[in-house]
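Narrative of accomplishments. A recurring question from our advisory board has been how the design workflow behaves on a single, concrete structure rather than in aggregate. To address it, we present the structure tokens for one chain from the evaluation set, followed by the sequence designed for it. No filtering or post-editing was applied between the two.
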């Protein structure tokens, strides 16, 4: 992401402004004005006024706007790629795969499936109620949704929740990270170009002050992706207001390499999991546990492949820049702690001395343990620490020895064993013989356990998470049964007890009920 510097204010009344610089060459890329609470509240009011008319459209009509957005994303792909690279320093290939391909896939998916997913659902009632009542579940939009997005996937991690909330019938206020604000601004331009009505999607520029104001404003839900510390503050604000929130807060994903794993594939998967997006994504591979009998071969293959990776600020490159200075400080701190405690560096281990920007070399470590920050805390950088274990039981125990629980990967040629092991990992999802790809499998609910978050995105819970499931129960007899509700008396009591004993105390009754 961009390097952010506050611009000195000439007076106390002047709005705060931020200057952004490119992480690759430190060149200025633009300025933003920090939106204060009054601007946030005004945006919420506009969204509230626009929401009823937007919700009154059919789901398919709302989905038609998403289909137009996909077309515009493809038309403006170079604009999006250029903006993302300028703000983040990620490689062009990753800008295309994460921000273009994944965005088109996600928005197309929601546009196609939302009409069926949000259609009223008729439900059969149990027991004698089935003869008396009809139940239909309607998915009613919550109203105004605030979406706060991170810097590591500034376009895809904004467009995916925005598309879900909009197609569900909500109006949206998007607050992108202050270090990647122009990707969020570009998203608003694309939806406007698609003809989205005024007030349905608004983007607020700003830093943590703006995000806090959005959480305190009169919205009906907050969707937040970011750090655990900030996520707790979001949850506290939503808890005070008794509104729902979805929190995706990062992870420390383990990778388990079993004795029967294909070593070349596992090594390649470890590199992809650890170094994609320069390691700056929430479900990246941050620690590896390899069974001792295959550890030598695995480590040798990983080191060989890691040493061949290219890193540069122009031309073709495999591993990009660190997105902002604060993350570089965390990465270097974890490295220093690991080395001081006896970790062995095989590849990398430092800032790239041949490049001027925020580049940290792809790194492989061995002889690590859980006393080290590199195995406990989220690093969010291109470091792959490998720890030997005696067997899969030890690997499971160590994988669960964390306060995170977002994703995990298992490498084995035995699918049955992989499933058994997966069910024992305290994680939001598990991928077998691949890096963590759950977020891209849009049918799968994506979310974390422990400190990795609350709630889920994608899957049925994604779009429906922006709705209230409203049960509508209709009496088959037009309410005539209510005439016999009163008076109470012994005859009614005896009848109720007789019915209970029959329905729940006899085989025939239990079958009926």
């Amino acid at each position: 992401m961009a390097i952010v510097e506050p611009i000195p204010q000439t007076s106390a009344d002047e709005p705060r402004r931020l200057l952004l610089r490119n992480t690759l060459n430190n060149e200025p890329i633009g300025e933003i004005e920090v939106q204060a609470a009054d601007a946030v509240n005004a945006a919420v009011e506009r969204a509230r006024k626009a929401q009823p008319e937007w919700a009154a459209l059919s789901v398919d009509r709302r989905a038609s706007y998403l289909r137009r957005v996909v077309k515009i994303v493809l038309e403006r792909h170079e604009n999006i790629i250029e903006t993302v690279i300028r703000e983040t320093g990620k490689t062009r290939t990753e800008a295309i795969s994460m921000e273009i391909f994944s965005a088109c896939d996600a928005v197309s998916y929601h546009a196609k499936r939302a009409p069926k997913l949000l259609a009223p659902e008729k439900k059969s009632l149990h027991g004698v109620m089935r003869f008396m009542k009809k139940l239909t579940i309607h998915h009613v939009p919550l109203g105004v949704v605030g979406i706060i997005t991170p810097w590591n996937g500034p376009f895809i991690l904004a467009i995916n929740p925005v598309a879900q909330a909009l197609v569900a019938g909500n109006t949206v206020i998007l607050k992108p990270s202050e270090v990647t604000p122009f990707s969020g601004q570009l998203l608003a331009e694309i939806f406007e170009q698609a003809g989205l009505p005024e007030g349905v999607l608004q983007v607020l520029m700003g830093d943590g002050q703006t995000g806090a104001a959005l959480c305190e404003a009169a919205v009906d839900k907050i969707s937040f992706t970011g750090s655990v510390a900030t996520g707790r503050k979001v949850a506290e604000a939503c808890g005070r207001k008794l509104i729902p929130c979805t929190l995706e807060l990062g992870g420390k994903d383990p990778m388990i390499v079993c004795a029967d794993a294909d070593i070349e594939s596992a090594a390649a998967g470890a590199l992809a999991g650890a170094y994609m997006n320069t390691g700056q994504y929430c479900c990246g591979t941050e620690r590896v546990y390899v069974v001792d009998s295959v550890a030598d071969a695995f480590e040798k293959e990983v080191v060989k492949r890691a040493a061949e990776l290219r890193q540069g600020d122009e031309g073709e490159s495999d591993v990009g820049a660190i997105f902002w200075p604060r993350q570089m400080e965390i990465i270097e701190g974890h490295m220093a702690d690991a080395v001081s405690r006896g970790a062995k560096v095989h590849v990398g281990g430092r800032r790239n001395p041949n490049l001027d920007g925020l580049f940290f070399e792809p790194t492989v470590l061995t002889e690590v343990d859980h006393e080290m920050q590199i195995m406990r805390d989220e690093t969010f950088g291109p470091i792959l620490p490998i720890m030997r274990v005696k067997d899969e039981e030890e690997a499971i125990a160590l994988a669960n020895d964390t306060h995170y629980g977002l994703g995990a990967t298992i490498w084995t040629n035995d699918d049955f064993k992989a499933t058994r092991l997966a069910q024992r990992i305290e994680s939001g999802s598990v991928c077998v013989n691949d890096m963590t790809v759950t977020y891209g499998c849009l049918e799968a609910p994506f979310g974390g356990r422990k400190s990795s978050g609350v709630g889920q995105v994608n899957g049925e819970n994604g779009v429906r998470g922006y709705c209230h499931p409203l049960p509508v129960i209709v009496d088959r007899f037009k309410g005539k049964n209510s005439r016999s509700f009163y008076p109470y008396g012994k005859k009614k009591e005896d009848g109720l007890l007789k019915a209970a004993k029959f329905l729940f105390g006899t085989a025939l009754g239990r079958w009926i009920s």
